[in-house]
Amino acid sequence: MMKKNGKRLLTAGLLLALAVSLTACGGNNAAADAGARPVRIATKPMTEQYILGEMLGLLIEQAGYEVEITKGVGGGTSNIHPAMESGSFDLYPEYTSSGWVMVLDHPAGEIADDEMFAQLRKEYQEKFDMDWLGLYGFNNTYTVAVRGDTAKQYNLQNTSDLAAAAGSLTFGGNPDYIERADGFGALCDTYGLQFQNVMDIDIGLKYQALAGGEIDVTNAYTTDAQLANPETDLVTLADDKHLQVNYFCSTVVRRQALEEFPGLEEALMQMDGLLSEKEMASLNYQVEVEGVDEQKAARDFLIGKGLLEG
Question: Taking the CB of residue 178, how many other CB atoms lie within 10 A of it?
C-alpha cells in the first residue's frame, strides 16, 4: 500500500513539475502562447514594399514570433486584400488612397487626409474586421522633378513656379503618365503649363535623360530610388495646388491576428512616424542601385533608429 501511494505521489510530483516547466516556458515565449504558426506578411511587387515587409518582420520577430513573408504578390491590393479577408495573410503595408479607392470604392481626393485615415479605420473595422495601425511618415505620390541647375536658373520651388519657365523647357515622361487623365494633362491644366517640347521616355531611362540634359522636367514618385542618387542633383517641386492625392503608408492588419498574437500591435506601432520620403528613397536606392539585400537595408535602418540591437 505504501509503495503504491509512493508511486502516486511521484507521478503527481512529476506532473506538477512538468506543468510548472511548461508555464515558465510559455511565459517567456510569446510564440508559444499564440500557437506554432507564424505571423503572415504580404507585400506588393516593388522594392519599397520588400523593404517595409522586412522591417515589419524584424520588429515582429523581436516581439517573440516567427514570421512568414510572401513577397511581391501579383496584383497588389487587388489580390492581397481578398487574401487578408480569407485569413491567408495577417498584415501588409498599404497606402491610404489605395485602400480608399481600390477597396472601399470611394472617389479619390474627396476628403482631407486626416479625415480619410479616420474613416479608413472605421470602415475597415466595420466591413472587414481589420485595422490601419500608424502612419510610417512618408507619402509615395506623384511629384515633378527637375535638375538642380534648372531649379536655380528659374527659381523653381513649387510646381506653380514652372508656369513662367515651361516655354523654355522640355518635359519627358513615361507614356502611361502622359496619357492618363490624372497625369500630364491634369498637371498642365492645374498649373497652366505649356512646355516647349514634350517627349515620351521609357520609365527606366527618364532619370538618365534628365541628368544628361535631354529633358528638363519629368514626373516622379516621391520615394523613387533615383531621387537619392548622390551622383545626380535632382530637385522635387512642391505640389502647392494639391493636385495629387496622397498615398501615406501604414499597416493593415486583421484584428483577429492582434488578439491571437499579444504584443503584435505594439510591435507594429514602432513603424509610426519612422520614415521620411528622403529616407525611403535612400533605402530604395540602396537596394535597387547598390544591390544591398532588402533585409540588410531594413535591419541597418532599424538599428540606426534604435529599434533593434546591432
Answer: 18
